[in-house]
Amino acid sequence: MIAKTNHRVDAQWQWMSGIRTGDKKTFRRRSSSSRCFLLSGVFAVVFGVAFVGVYYHMQPALASWLIVKNIVVSGLRAIEREEVVHGLDLGPEASLLSLNFTELEDRLENHPWVASVVVGRALPDTLTVVIVERRPAARVAGNFDELILDEEGFVLPNREHAVIGLLPALQGLDPQRLVHGDPVVRQHAQQGIKIAKVLSSRFGGVPRVHLRDSSRIIVDVRNLRFRFGHMFEEQWERFLLLDASLEQRFETASREIDLRFPGKVIVRERG
Q1: How many C-beta atoms surround the C-beta of residue 191 within 10 A?
Q2: pLDDT tens digits, 181-212
C-alpha cells in the first residue's frame, strides 16, 4: 500500500517538475522577445531623433540646393511661355522643397486658355509644367465682335489664329450671357457645337448653326439646310437610314432636310 502511494506521489512530482521546467523555458523565450522588442523601439527612437536633428541642420543647405533655376513648360499652342512663368509668380528664392504644387496649379488654371495643368519637379532645380489648353471649337457670329468658344462653351480670348476662320459659326446666342457663363446659354452652345461637328464630319465644309430656338435648330452646310428639333441623335440616325442613292443627289442640288417630325424625313428643294 505504501509502495503504491509513493509511486503515485513520484509521478505527480515528475509531472509538476515538467510544468515548471516548461514554464522556465517559456519565460526565457518571452524575456528574450521582450528585450529584442525593447531594443528595436529604442533604436527606432534614437534613429528618428538623429534624423530630425540632421534634417533640421541640413534643411537650409538642402533648400538652397533645390532653388528653382529652370522652368520647363510643355503643351503650349495659344499661350506664351512668359504668361505661364508670370502666372506661377515664383520668388527669386523659390525652392522645390517648399513650393505648394496644388496652389501653383490653381493659379495657372485661372488663365482662360488653360483647361488643366500638372506641376511637378525634376531634381535638383527644375520645375515642370504640363498644360492642356482649351481648343477653339466654334465662333459666335452676330452684330458684335465675334466670340470664340471651346467645346464646353467657355469664351476664349481671340488670339487671331488662322484656324478661327474655319470654325463653325453659331448664331442666335446672347454674347453677354455667354461671357458671364450662363449655364443655359452654354448648354445651347455645346449642343450647336456637337451638331456642327457631326455634320462637318459627314459633309465637310464649315457649318452655320442657328440656335435662336432650341426646339428649331437650323444648320446650313455646303448646299444643304437641315432642320432639327429636340432629340438630335434620334433625328440624325433617321437621316442616316436614307437610301444612298437619294443622298447622292444632295451633291448636285440644294436641298432642305426637315427632321423635326417623328418617323419622317422631309426633303424639299431649297428656295
Answers
A1: 19
A2: 999 999 999 999 999 999 999 999 999 999 97
- The angle subtended at Cα 175 by Cα 174 and Cα 179, nearest 5°, is 125
Query: From the CA atom positions of the chain, what is the Rg in Å?
Result: 38
CA dihedral 191, 185, 138, 269 (to 10 degrees): 60
Tell me the Ramachandran region of residue 222: left when phi exceeds 0, alpha when psi lies from -120 to 50, beta otherwise. Answer: left
Q: Are 181 and 190 in contact (CB under 8 A)?
A: no
- Neighbouring C-beta atoms of residue 114, cutoff 10 Å: 21
Grid coordinates representing 61 are 543647405
Buried b or exposed e, range 206-237, using 16+ CB within 10 angstroms = ebbbbbeeeeebbbbbeebbbbbbeebeebbe
The Cα 65–Cα 178 span in angstroms is 48
Q: Flag whether the pTM goes above 0.90.
A: no
Query: How far is residue 57's CA from residue 74's CA, in Å, rounded to a whole number?
Result: 36
Helix H or strand E segment including 138 = strand 138-140
Residues with Cβ < 8 Å from 163, sequence gap 6 or more? Answer: 136
CA atoms within 13 A on the CB side of 176: 1
- 196 and 84: one domain? no
Beta strands in 32-113 (DSSP E): 70-74
Do 129 and 157 fall within a single domain?
Answer: no
Asked if residue 175 and residue 84 are part of one domain, the reply reads: no
Residue 15's pLDDT band, with cuts at 50, 70 and 90, is: very low
Give the structural domain span for 39: 1-65
